[in-house]
Amino acid sequence: MKAVVFAYHNVGVRCLKALLGGGVEVALVVTHRDNPKENIWFASVEQVARDHGIPVITPDDPNTPEVLARVQAARPDFLFSFYYRHMLKAPLLECAARGAFNMHGSLLPRYRGRVPINWAIIHGETETGATLHVMNVKPDNGPIVDQMAVPILPDDNADEVFAKVTVAAEMVLARSLPALLAGQTEFRQQDLSLGGYFGGRKPEDGRIDPLAGAAQLHNFVRALSHPFPGAFADTESGRLVIWKTLRAGSHGQALQGARLRADDGALWLEAVDGGCLKVLSATLDGAPLEQLAEPLALN
Questions:
Q1: What region holds the Formyl transferase C-terminal domain (predicted)?
Q2: How far, in Å, CA of 112 to CA of 220, rounded?
Q3: How confident is the model at residue 88 (pLDDT cuts 50, 70, 90)?
Q4: Which pLDDT value is given to residue 251?
Q5: In angstroms, rounded to a whole number, what is the distance separating the alpha carbons of residues 115 and 162?
Q6: DSSP state of 193
């Protein structure tokens, strides 16, 4: 069987390797050029393709006549998308004689759309996962081939959850591939009423809400921690970025907004609902923050 693969990021690397390990001939890989303005903390799909002697292209827009001609010339049985960042339009999807499939980083139909892992942590979910599904012109709503759940522990950050989802994606593809190749897959329609669509996030979306409760603040911080841009607040002393917190009970005070204070050699983030977080890592105007002379209000 022959496939064309659109892929990027760690999920793209592992799923491409799973296809090759499963005996699929990958005729063409379409990926992205790395953006020099982006923190590239993940592995390279392009490098894996070149290591295996697979033709690879990096178009800015995959839905051009030139890219379509390359994909058609490959005469693929399957088309796969693994964390590729652009939507593929109908002409591309129709190139694959046996179907087009996408790997999504959530338990569909929940968290359709962009950055599903970050959104799941922000909302305090206790599990997420990876879902292989049929691709169509609408994002993340095709019939499900298979999915696997992974836990989100109370202090897991997005990087840790992403690592779990990457393994789940590889396992889902590897165990689904034999039935797909044999034409014996049993598809399950999604009930879209059981989930919602979420958009992408920009660094500015990391601004901390000073009126949020302690649980919300903790989830927000861990969802945006390294390698993501971080949860931040502007204070009278400069920009505060909080990278890691632990839940630490109650501070027992009525506050009009969240504040940061120092006590017993540690930093504490006190929320308006009475909850308190121990701050394990933070920076103020880019420098590590370990002590404060006075409490610092978050604006």
A1: 202-286
A2: 19
A3: very high
A4: 78
A5: 10
A6: G
pLDDT tens track for 176-192: 999 999 999 999 999 99
Burial of 4-39, coded b for 16+ CB within 10 Å and e otherwise, reads: bbbbbbbbbbbbbbbbbeeebebbbbbbbeeeeeee
Residue 249 shares a structural domain with residue 144: no
Question: 257 — phi, psi (to 5°)?
Answer: -165, 160
87 and 164 together in one domain: yes
pTM over 0.90: yes
Provide the residue type at 145 as one letter.
V
> Does 209 lie in the same domain as 192?
no
* Cα–Cα distance for residue pair 195/205, rounded to 1 Å: 22
Residues 165 and 65 reside in one and the same domain: yes
CATH number at residue 85: 3.40.50.170
Mean pLDDT of the chain: 96
| Cα–Cα distance, 147 to 166 (Å, whole number) | 12
Instruction: Please tell me whether residues 139 and 226 are part of one structural domain.
Output: no
Same domain (yes/no): 131, 257: no
CA-only gyration radius of the chain, Å: 22
Domain containing 268 equals: 205-297
Looking at the chain, the whole-number percentage of residues with pLDDT higher than 90 is 91
Q: Among residues 81, 84, 86, which one has the least CA distance to residue 99? A: 81
In the sheet where 127-134 sits, what is the strand order?
Answer: 56-57, 25-30, 2-7, 78-82, 100-104, 127-134, 144-151
pLDDT in tens, 8-49: 999 999 999 999 999 999 999 999 999 888 889 999 999 999
Q: What is the CATH number of the domain that holds 211?
A: 3.10.25.10
pLDDT score of 268: 95
pLDDT in the model for residue 264: 84
Task: State whether 111 and 237 are in the same domain.
Answer: no
Query: Which residue, 168, 198, 228, sits at the end of a domain?
Result: 198
Write down which residue in 174, 198, 222 finishes a domain. 198
- Are residues 117 and 85 in contact, defined by beta-carbon separation less than 8 angstroms? no
